[in-house]
Design brief:
about 350 residues, mainly beta, Lipocalin, two-stranded antiparallel sheet, 18 strands, about 55% strand, disordered N terminus
């Protein structure tokens, strides 16, 4: 009965959000940190507010499992190819979270991201064009795609096993140039503001939103391990189910995403909790005429050390660094050397 109630309540909640109304520049880059584990899983009833800032500087080109130089990528164009030679993408995400736990069995969470992204590229440059005057730049600063997630954690008596169902809504600006390059599709897509491409619209995958409504499903488990440690594992899957860009020659569908995180928390001192996470992300290829299909899929794994600190009774802050330990990317994609996340939660 509890499971049936979970499904019906979640579907109703999603319907209410839709009626009132993840894309990253690298296939597997982004905020893969498990913020729930960072702040500590809780079954306390009431409201909570959170704020998280993520900094992701994608400043190295990679293909497969290794790095590659700009001149090597430009060599494809020397031979008559048409490969973009990207320069860098800096992502800054500020995510406001609002949570409500009516009982120990249930949790509702709304996540509202603000995206500040700067992107530079040489375009389809040849080796002799890798100069500063050939770099085109763009800036995206706007609301991203909002997520609403319902969690049910009443399957076990100690409430340490949960399942999730949620939705991502197309609230961010999306779109770009149509396939012929003669017009604009989507809603308020950003354009290049400097360099040879000034005025040209930014690629669809680099906009603040994807233009898609996505279904999110997941599960998590956490438990004490010995006297001073606790361990956790969580898995989340996201797939686009409705695309606003769905017309022939003007279509775009972001690839499916899977994220697996697991780790340990050292809780000998409940005020200061060091922890270590492993975060693994996979994204399948984007699809559609407006997608950069050959350069949009991959898998990445991060080792993420961090700490959470209780500064007041109901206020907690946390900080993490994410160190890439493995990547296998299709095509030629920008990738970070390290990413950083800091957050604050307040329960009341």
């Amino acid at each position: 009965m509890k499971l049936i109630k979970f499904l019906s309540t979640t579907i109703l909640s999603i319907g209410i959000v839709i009626s009132s109304l993840d894309c990253f520049a690298c296939a597997a880059c982004g905020c893969s940190l498990s913020s729930e584990a960072a702040a500590g899983y809780s079954t306390a009833t009431g409201w909570s507010v959170s704020l998280q800032y993520d900094y992701i500087n994608q400043n190295q080109l990679r293909t497969g499992t290794g790095s590659i130089s700009s001149s090597q990528v430009a060599g494809i164009n020397d031979a008559g190819g048409s490969q973009e030679v990207e320069h860098s993408t800096i992502n800054r995400y500020i995510t406001l979270g609002l949570g409500y736990t009516p009982s120990a069995d249930w949790n509702l969470k709304l996540l509202v991201p603000y995206i500040d992204r700067s992107h530079t590229t040489y375009g389809q440059a040849t080796s002799d064009q890798l100069t500063l005057d050939q770099i085109s730049g763009s800036s995206v600063s706007s609301l991203g795609d909002i997520k609403f997630i319902t969690s049910f954690q009443g399957l076990l008596s100690n409430h340490n096993l949960g399942i999730q169902l949620g939705v991502k809504l197309p609230t961010g600006a999306y779109g770009g140039p149509n396939a012929s390059g003669t017009g604009t599709v989507g809603r308020n897509p950003a354009a290049f503001t400097s360099g040879p491409n000034t005025g040209d619209l930014l690629d669809t995958s680099l906009q603040a939103g994807t233009g898609s409504t996505d279904l999110i499903a997941g599960a998590y488990y956490n438990s004490k391990v010995g006297q001073d440690f606790s361990a956790f594992v969580n898995l989340q899957f996201q797939t686009a189910v409705i695309q606003a860009l769905d017309q022939p020659g003007e279509d775009y569908r972001p690839g499916n995403q899977e994220a697996l995180s697991f780790g340990l928390r050292y809780e000998a001192n409940p005020t200061i909790v060091p922890q270590l996470q492993v975060n693994i992300n996979h994204r399948s290829r984007d699809l559609g005429t407006l997608a950069d299909i050959p350069n949009s899929a991959g898998t990445a794994a991060y080792l993420s050390p961090g700490v959470s600190v209780g500064i007041l009774k109901d206020v907690q802050i946390y900080g993490f660094a994410q160190l890439p330990i493995y990547s296998k990317l299709e095509g030629y994609q920008l990738f970070p050397h390290v990413t950083g996340s800091v957050g604050l939660t307040y329960a009341f």
